[in-house]
């Protein structure tokens, strides 16, 4: 589904990603963990198409196509979804109008007619139930005045509406209480299918109690320094990141 | 020249040439204000850019022009005006049409609506209801630095009169359609008086249209009295051609516990200056002043707001927004005056503007003068481009950049439009703004003129 090969990227001339390779297959959940400043969010930004990140080397292939050549909106329509770490408030734009436009853009891309008003509202209702978000949120402006938890749940709701093939959740768990965390995780688990994949970026192991990853990567200083099964997350929770940092420093000096 | 500018001299002359005819068709009470207003005008003159309140707006190009006439109505004009129909058909209102500032019905110059409400000609009302009229006319439109207010008092002879008695709620809004139409370049002035007695509740919609391509200059003054505990909304929709200059001066005087809102939506116009004066004269009064403009080409739109917290425990709120394209220019000047006794004042002001090109220009000036100490005041102004993060957020959901920009601009504008309480009008404004933003309306809606 997604093949990242030796990806290097910088922001404002400062090198952030220093050669990342990653292979995500259909149906897999990959967790990317790592300390602050290791490049996790930059990787998410590159995959979604933010312009402020400059790609200096490497390739990203998504479903056989060169992802880096595609506009953000085309990536979305091809099935990539980014769950934002800090969802944006957009006063004056209603959730309904936002989602209707997005869903119909996706449908147009697939050669389908726009949904009728009633079909669209039914879809909204169904997905709201699925992710257990408050009905009233959908009547408001996008994220405006939402609490931190509501914003994150709203990201999962949008994901449910757009049914992506590859969802990248950038620290969706940060700042959530345990109930909101459970709702977010349930949303992911309900949307998981054999043909779609998730990249879950997280700082803490906590989320991975609810979403069980197939593969766990540790990102440190712009590189993936460790890849293992789900047990790696537990080890990190117990011992923190220091032992990995030490291991790397020892390797460098050795 | 005795120190007066050439432009001012011209209007002094205009007064002298026309005052005989003007006085002849006006009520003695209205005529009683003219001489002193003329004195005041000749002292202050046409505002120049040296006047702090007009620092960003150059009126000269419109005031310098030689207009072929100062409008006086003849019967055939009225027949034309009566044929006009508002195209917003689902907007159910009590309608009034003004033609070049005159109430153009020959026979029924005042109409009685249910519950003792009267709407109609200003001049007629001064004759028919002297007690109501004389209590308020000329009491609120005051200015120590704007000569145009006095020029209006000196020369205007008609306009709209609305009277809503104590305790009456009007379920339908009153709609005033201001038509400007002439075969010659024309200067016109009109004067409105709106009286909302104690505990009354209603809205007025004022629609400004130009129906012929001549060069027009309009200088209008509206006085509004809002009695104790009354609720009053005024919504002005401006849709004029690029060769028209519209100057509106609205004075809203509020008594105890009254609530008002004013909303100026400028969709199109060559040079627009809207001055809105809110006087909070009774404790517990609350005022909301909103404005939105969309400008392109060489258009210039200036909103000037003056909120006077004259007594304690009043609340005021200002929200003004502008979207500027091409080489258009705009100005916002928001003054909040909190007088020494006005403790417990809450006063807010926000002015946000989006510049779509490098050539568009916006000046924003907050002016807070606070002489009381127990006061909560805030103000903020932004002038910039669309929010890049918000744009990316929309794109990341599959919405293409052009559409995403449109959605953001629409959302930006909708924050002002959502405050219009009349639903049919709110939807109409949303549609017109969307069309304008899409570039489908490079001229006024329902344009007959095609001025380009």
Which tags fit this structure?
heterodimer, A: 254 residues, alpha/beta, Rossmann fold, six-stranded mixed sheet, four-stranded antiparallel sheet, 8 helices, 12 strands, 37% helix, B: 452 residues, eleven-stranded mixed sheet, nine-stranded parallel sheet, 11 helices, 20 strands, 38% strand, disordered C terminus
Please provide the ordered H/E string of secondary-structure elements of chain A. Answer: EEEHEEHEEHHEHEHEEEHH
Mean pLDDT of chain B: 91
Total E-strand runs of chain B: 20
The low-confidence runs of chain A, each spanning 5 or more residues with pLDDT under 50, are: none
Low-confidence runs of chain B (pLDDT<50, min 5 residues)? 447-452
Q: Calculate the mean pLDDT score of chain A and round it.
A: 90
Concise description?
The complex is a heterodimer of chains A (254) and B (452). Chain A has 254 residues and is of the alpha/beta class.
Structure, described:
The complex is a heterodimer of chains A (254) and B (452). Chain A is an alpha/beta fold and 254 residues long. Chain A has a single domain, classed as Rossmann fold (3-Layer(aba) Sandwich). Chain A is 37% helix and 28% strand. Chain A has helices at 40-48, 72-77, 95-109, 117-131, 148-162, 178-191, 231-239, 242-253, and strands at residues 2-11, 14-24, 29-33, 53-62, 65-66, 80-83, 90-94, 141-142, 166-170, 197-201, 215-220, 223-228. Chain A has a 6-stranded mixed beta sheet with strand order 6-9-10-3-11-12, with helices on both faces. In chain A, β11 (215-220) and β12 (223-228) form a beta hairpin. In chain A, α4 (117-131) crosses α5 (148-162) and α5 (148-162) runs parallel beside α6. Chain A is globular. Chain B has helices at residues 6-25, 28-31, 34-44, 60-63, 75-82, 122-128, 130-136, 147-155, 388-395, 401-417, 423-438, and strands at 69-70, 94-99, 110-113, 117-121, 160-164, 174-180, 186-196, 201-210, 216-226, 231-239, 244-254, 259-268, 271-280, 286-295, 300-309, 315-324, 329-338, 345-355, 361-370, 375-384. Residues 447-452 of chain B have low confidence and may be disordered. Chain B has one domain (6-438). Chain B has 452 residues and is α/β, with parallel strands linked by helices. Helix content of chain B is 25%, strand content 38%. In chain B, strands 1, 3, 4, 5, 7, 9, 11, 13, 15, 17 and 19 form an 11-stranded mixed beta sheet that branches. In chain B, strands 2-6-8-10-12-14-16-18-20 form a 9-stranded parallel beta sheet. The A-B interface holds A 48-50, 71-73, 75-77, 81-82, 84, 87-88, 90-93, 97-98, 101-102, 105-106, 109, 141-142, 158, 162 and B 387, 389-390, 392-401, 403-404, 407-408, 410-415, 418.
